[in-house]
Automatic annotation (TrEMBL):
Residues 36-271 form the ABC1 atypical kinase-like domain. It comes from Thalassiosira oceanica. Belongs to the protein kinase superfamily. ADCK protein kinase family. SUPFAM superfamilies: Protein kinase-like (PK-like) (SSF56112). PANTHER family: CHAPERONE-ACTIVITY OF BC1 COMPLEX CABC1 -RELATED (PTHR10566), PROTEIN ACTIVITY OF BC1 COMPLEX KINASE 7, CHLOROPLASTIC (PTHR10566:SF113). Pfam families: ABC1 (PF03109). This is ABC1 atypical kinase-like domain-containing protein. It comes from the Eukaryota.
């Protein structure tokens, strides 16, 4: 029989992320949600020892000494007990019984839900979400999460990624006493980053801890491209010396080469030049940013590049202004029509990996803001990205050869690049002109305001026609002497009246949608 905590797995996982949003939710709510992080009811120590004995093929007491009868922490997938192994204190993670069977049932139901979401998600924010792909990625990661040997490999790789960072600690794995359902690791004493009272009592620098939390996250996303998907306060802690301590490596993900390259290009473009970048340089950076978004697979094929670049320039300038503490320009007046075009065409398609990046970002951002009121991951990312970009210069063989050629000829890399790419650009221009001369190239010019005027006019005309028919049928029904004819007239009038009401609702919805993007008065509106 499965325990109650096992059956509420989805709720617990959601609560773990939401509980980090101390900057959004009141303290009484986050305090309650925090209990989902590691205060899940556990199973007995006797049952845990039985599982360990079965997995290791020998009695638990013959391998471990001082096995704690009560769990140190209980989570949705298992619980942790402390013990001694060869004279060293260890943490033993023991998986709950029957998890795979539960996953088989629950994930089958979730797949049906994902298919329904793909059909009915309105996607009014312009993102073409593929819920089935997100489900499939989640399913893959969840099944990997209940394989503790996979978690052991993840832990060792993560530790290697941070081997040169002395303020990040990752527990050592003892593989000889680990199995797919039992994981034995070094015991590292720590406490939650959300325990601000204890942080202050120990005299730790909250600003520094917030910065380290952001730096560790950025290193994973930008440098190593291998990141922790679930860094909630139960998995990302701090020791008495102020070092970050990571736990629970069951959910890790790696950016594919194209996403990694595109994301780096995106970050480089966004932070290039600092907050004082001039408009002409910003326009160049916006092109690079859109190139990165396209390379990462976020931008759909056939998307209006000019509109996307204009949108990128607006958001980049707004971001730069926010770094200076300035208020950005109105989105309606600046890019309203372009934003509406992109939203209606669903040009943004986020790969499933981004779901876990956003989730990880939400956790880290929530923890950082809980530590410091002035926490801004965007500002902290500026020097990090600049330093990373500088290190990456001349990294590839081609870039090194360009640098050598530049020194020999006295030309910089930009000049050499222009010289190399100019023939290709000239050929492209020549082919484009020839297509225009032959009439093969079609240039489409859009006037979104006129299109919307006509669209609203069509809706209004449809409503008026239905009202006219309803009125006509009412008059006929009133004048009819035949009872059957009178009933049919009233019924028809009611049907057209209902359709007119629906049309009126569509017009109201249309106007509200327009209001989000542009401040427009339509023909026929009252002054």
């Amino acid at each position: 029989m499965q325990d109650e905590s096992t059956n509420s797995l989805s709720t617990q996982r959601l609560g773990q992320v939401v509980s980090t949003r101390t900057d959004v939710l009141p303290v009484e709510y986050t305090d309650t949600l925090k209990t989902l992080q590691d205060d899940v009811p556990g199973f007995s120590g006797v049952r845990a020892k039985e599982i360990v004995s079965k997995e290791l093929g020998q009695e638990c007491d013959s391998v471990f000494k001082n096995f704690s009868p009560e769990p140190l922490a209980a989570a949705s997938l298992g619980q942790v007990h402390t013990a001694s192994y060869k004279g060293r204190k260890v943490a033993i993670k023991v998986q709950r019984a029957g998890l795979k069977e539960l996953f088989d049932v629950d994930l089958k139901n979730l797949k049906k839900l994902a298919e329904l979401l793909d059909k009915f998600d309105p996607k009014t924010d312009g993102a073409d979400r593929d819920w089935v792909s997100i489900y499939e990625e989640s399913e893959r990661l969840l099944y990997l999460e209940i394989d503790y040997l996979n978690e052991a490999s993840n832990c060792e790789r993560f530790a290697q990624d941070f081997v040169d960072i002395d303020w990040v600690r990752v527990p050592e794995v003892y593989r000889e006493v680990s199995t797919p359902r039992v994981l034995t690791m070094e015991f590292v004493d720590s406490f939650k980053l959300t325990n601000v009272k204890k942080i202050d009592e120990l005299g730790l620098d909250r600003e520094l801890l917030a910065k380290r939390t952001a730096d560790a996250f950025l290193r994973q996303i930008v440098e190593t491209a291998y990141f922790h998907c679930d860094p909630h306060p139960g998995n990302l802690c701090v020791d008495k010396s102020g070092n970050l301590v990571y736990y629970d490596f069951g959910m890790m993900d790696e950016l594919s080469p194209n996403v990694r390259s595109g994301f780096r290009k995106f970050c480089t473009a966004l932070f290039a030049g600092g907050p004082f970048v001039p408009d002409d340089e910003l326009a160049v950076n916006a092109k690079m940013l859109v190139d990165g978004v396209e390379e990462a697979g976020v931008l759909a094929r056939g998307a209006d590049r000019l509109a996307v670049e204009k949108l990128a320039r607006y958001f980049m300038r707004t971001f730069k202004d926010s770094q200076l503490g300035k208020k950005g320009r109105s989105i309606k007046q600046t890019v309203g029509t372009d934003l509406q075009t992109l939203t209606e065409n669903d040009v943004f398609r986020f790969p499933s990996t981004f779901t876990f990046i956003f989730r990880s970002f939400a956790s880290v951002d929530g923890i950082g803001k809980g530590l410091s009121d002035t926490f801004d991951i965007g500002k902290l990312a500026q020097p990090f990205i600049e330093k990373f970009t500088e290190v990456q210069k001349n990294e590839t063989v081609a870039e090194k050869n360009l640098n050598i050629l530049g020194k020999a000829t006295g030309l910089n890399q930009a000049d050499i690049y222009k010289a190399i790419t100019s023939p290709k650009k000239i050929d492209y221009m020549e082919r484009t002109i020839r297509e225009m001369e032959r009439g093969d190239l079609k240039i489409r010019v859009r006037s979104l305001e006129n299109e919307k005027q006509l669209e609203r006019l069509s809706l209004t005309q449809g409503k008026m026609e239905k009202l006219l028919f309803a009125s006509l049928l009412l008059n006929l029904a009133g004048a009819a002497t035949n009872r059957l004819l009178r009933g049919a007239g009233f019924l028809g009038a009611a049907a057209f009246g209902l359709q007119a009401f629906i049309s009126s609702s569509k017009i109201t919805k249309f106007d509200k949608t327009q209001e989000k993007f542009v401040a427009t008065k339509f023909v026929g509106d009252d002054e």
